[in-house]
Each structure stands twice: as structure tokens, then as C-alpha cells.
Amino acid sequence: MHTPVTIIGAGLGGLTLARVLHVHGIPATVYEAEASPAARTQGGMLDIHDYNGQLAIEAAGLMDEFRGLILEGREAMRILDQDGAVLFEKADDGTGGRPEVQRAELRRMLLDSLPAGAVRWGHKVTSARALGDGHHEVTLADGGTVTTSLLVGADGAWSRVRPLLSTATPEYTGTSFVEFYLFDADTRHPAAAKAVGGGSLMAPAQGKEIHAHRESGDTLHTYVMLTRSQDWFAAIDFTDAATATARIAREFAGWAPELTALITDGDTEPVLRPHYALPIGHRWDRVPGVTLVGDAAHLSAPNGEGANLAMYDGAELGKALAAHPGDIETALTEYEQAMFPRAVEAATDDTHIREQLFGDDVPQGLIDMFTDHE
Ligand SMILES: Cc1cc2nc3c(=O)[nH]c(=O)nc-3n(C[C@H](O)[C@H](O)[C@H](O)COP(=O)(O)OP(=O)(O)OC[C@H]3O[C@@H](n4cnc5c(N)ncnc54)[C@H](O)[C@@H]3O)c2cc1C
């Protein structure tokens, strides 16, 4: 099989690229490992920023559809101390520039905007190799192969395309999330629901934080952030939900009950999500016929930018290819030269955020960060 533009991965980056190409009349095929759009729950809410994610959606011609997905009021945020006292609060007045949407709905919006058959589900790529003259061959888990004159790795943290460009691999950042969900929170978990309020809650302390979002309906999504080694987490048996939950809650012993309830009242099993990152400044020399977007190119610890940047990369690459018909190398050069510094800037901001969160003066550092941005 030969497809001219071959995108590996139907995440937000790959789908935005496919959509922007489609808007410009350029066909592309997306190969996705998962069996269907519903194969895996897509995670929680994403705030989509007016300086990157929303620009990508505009380039994709999907602003009206996007507005229909926005969860009103979810930009409200509050910072609590460990006794539950509100230290900082910000209402959602609709001018925040970071509306929240459910990730699954955003992905569905992009999928629905593509021609039928553009995404080949259940096609896991195992490797890719150069054939010369900018052509590549991709091998699939079922043994099939695809050749292409433009290969784009949009396949996330553990990209199978990245080895064509660089030897870098993600490393553990020292921090992990443990996630919990509380359903029907206003009636079943009222104290926790009240603590979270209408949008998001942060309760930070040195090396740890309880972070929670009010998602659609009255579902609360808790992200417990802990700076601990991978060995520390490995000693917890996450297949034993009750014991694992109790072990994580123990890290917050003495905290206000409405905060620890965001852990102990979880209606789902705790899910461990270790954070990995590529080196800041990860880049490569131009290799004809292949590039990367999103986490495949610049995975960093969650800083609220990853999905936004992935979409922005996809849109920028799509626009560059449309602007240079028949000249893939000029388009890829233009895209990469802008993408490399953009990724560094976001990762540097991330370092700043982490210093605020885990520095000596928690949570004042975090409050200062929000008030500085007013
Ligand atoms: C817990 C958590 C919370 C986050 N919160 C936010 C947030 O609030 N805001 C934000 O902007 N970012 C957030 N991020 C970061 C964000 O999720 C990522 O940066 C973003 O999803 C990257 O998009 P992507 O398209 O590059 O990759 P991905 O979303 O990882 O998509 C890659 C796709 O490729 C597929 N794939 C992988 N390997 C193969 C293969 N070998 N063959 C075929 N297909 C393959 C995968 O199945 C997947 O569909 C968060 C991340 C985590 C872990």
C-alpha cells in the first residue's frame, strides 16, 4: 500500500493535522493502534488556550463546533490550604481565554470532520525505515507494510517514528499522578464537591498536591500529584484498589476531610500515571520525508500545554504543507524551525511552574503565579 501523507496516531495532534490537510484538499491516512474511538477512555477535561489550541481549531475550520463543546463555568479555580481554607479564588467570567472541554468530545469533533476511512483503526505501527529519496516504509503489527513519501509521527510519548530522527527516549520526571473519579458528587460527595466549586481546585504542599476538576455533569476528577521515585510507587499494589487508595491517602494524613475525600471517596480504581519527558530542547537535523508532532516531538510533564501544543503543531504543519505544494522539504523545514523553539518555551514555563509548586513557599508561590498572570 502507498499513501502520500501517512500520519501515525489519531490523537489530537495527528487528527488536527489530518483535518487541516483536508481543509486544503490534501488527502492523508491516519494509522491508529487502538481498535476504535471508544477503545479507551480519553481522560479528563482540557483547557484550550486562545494562543495555541484555539488557533489550531480555527485553522481546522471548527470554531463553531468547538464552542458547542465548552463546559460553561469550568474556568473558575481556587487554591486551598491543607486545612481547607480558601487562599485564592477566581470566578469564571467568560474572559479567561482557556475554556474547558472534555478530551473525548474534542477528539470526536475532529474525527467527525474527516472523510470516511481517513483513520485506519487497529493498525499498530511496530517500526519504520527509510527507503531513500524521502520515502519510508512503515511496518504494522499484523505484518502489513505501508510506503509513503511523507511520514508524520503523531504517535505520542513512545513514538515508533521518532527513532528515524533522534535517539532520545523519555525519562521519568520524578512526579506521578494518581487519578480518581467521584460520580454524582453534589449528592453523593457534597463536601468534596463544595471544596472543588464550579471549576478546579488546587491544594498544594511541598512535593505533593491534590488537584481536582468538576467535569461534565457533577463528576469530580482528582489528580493526586506526588513527587516520589518509581520504586516508591512500585511498592504499592495498584491491583488492590482499597489498599492502594489508603496508601495514597496516607500521604495526606491530617488534611481537611473534604480534601482527602477526593481520594478516599473515589468511585473508580486509582490509576497511576507516571510522568515522562523528553530532554528540553529535543531536536533533530532535517531527514527528508519525515517529521514529528506533539508528544512524539516534545513530551513534557503535564503543564496544561501538551494537548494544545500537539494541536497547534498539527495545524502549523498542515498549513506549511498547503503553502508549499510539491515541496515537502521546505514545508518541513519551516514547520520544524518554528516548532523547536516553541516547545522549548513551553517546557521552560513548565520548569517555572514546578518551582512555584514545589519550592520553599508553597502555596504562596502558586498564588503569586496566578495573580502575576492577571
Ligand atoms: C494525566 C494527564 C493530564 C494532562 N492534562 C493536560 C491538560 O490539561 N492540557 C493539555 O494541554 N495537555 C494535557 N496533558 C498532555 C496531553 O495529554 C498530551 O500532550 C497530548 O495528548 C499529546 O497529543 P498527541 O496527539 O501528541 O499524542 P497522544 O494524545 O498520545 O496520541 C497519540 C496517539 O497515537 C496512538 N499510537 C501510539 N503508538 C502507536 C503506534 N505504534 N501505532 C499506531 N498508533 C499509535 C495512540 O493510541 C494515540 O491515539 C495531560 C497528560 C496527562 C498524562
Automatic annotation (TrEMBL):
<feature type="binding site">
    <location>
        <position position="295"/>
    </location>
    <ligand>
        <name>FAD</name>
    </ligand>
</feature>
<keyword id="KW-0560">Oxidoreductase</keyword>
<keyword id="KW-0521">NADP</keyword>
<comment type="function">
    <text>An FAD-requiring monooxygenase active on some tetracycline antibiotic derivatives, which leads to their inactivation. Hydroxylates carbon 11a of tetracycline and some analogs.</text>
</comment>
<dbReference type="Pfam" id="PF01494">
    <property type="entry name" value="FAD_binding_3"/>
</dbReference>
<dbReference type="GO" id="GO:0071949">
    <property type="term" value="F:FAD binding"/>
</dbReference>
<dbReference type="InterPro" id="IPR002938">
    <property type="entry name" value="FAD-bd"/>
</dbReference>
<comment type="similarity">
    <text>Belongs to the aromatic-ring hydroxylase family. TetX subfamily.</text>
</comment>
<comment type="subunit">
    <text>Monomer.</text>
</comment>
<keyword id="KW-0547">Nucleotide-binding</keyword>
<dbReference type="InterPro" id="IPR043683">
    <property type="entry name" value="TetX_monooxygenase"/>
</dbReference>
<dbReference type="GO" id="GO:0005737">
    <property type="term" value="C:cytoplasm"/>
</dbReference>
<feature type="domain" description="FAD-binding">
    <location>
        <begin position="3"/>
        <end position="326"/>
    </location>
</feature>
<dbReference type="InterPro" id="IPR036188">
    <property type="entry name" value="FAD/NAD-bd_sf"/>
</dbReference>
<feature type="binding site">
    <location>
        <position position="40"/>
    </location>
    <ligand>
        <name>NADPH</name>
    </ligand>
</feature>
<keyword id="KW-0274">FAD</keyword>
<dbReference type="GO" id="GO:0004497">
    <property type="term" value="F:monooxygenase activity"/>
</dbReference>
<keyword id="KW-0963">Cytoplasm</keyword>
<keyword id="KW-0285">Flavoprotein</keyword>
<feature type="binding site">
    <location>
        <position position="103"/>
    </location>
    <ligand>
        <name>FAD</name>
    </ligand>
</feature>
<feature type="binding site">
    <location>
        <position position="47"/>
    </location>
    <ligand>
        <name>FAD</name>
    </ligand>
</feature>
<protein>
    <recommendedName>
        <fullName>Flavin-dependent monooxygenase</fullName>
        <ecNumber>1.14.13.-</ecNumber>
    </recommendedName>
</protein>
<keyword id="KW-0503">Monooxygenase</keyword>
<dbReference type="GO" id="GO:0046677">
    <property type="term" value="P:response to antibiotic"/>
</dbReference>
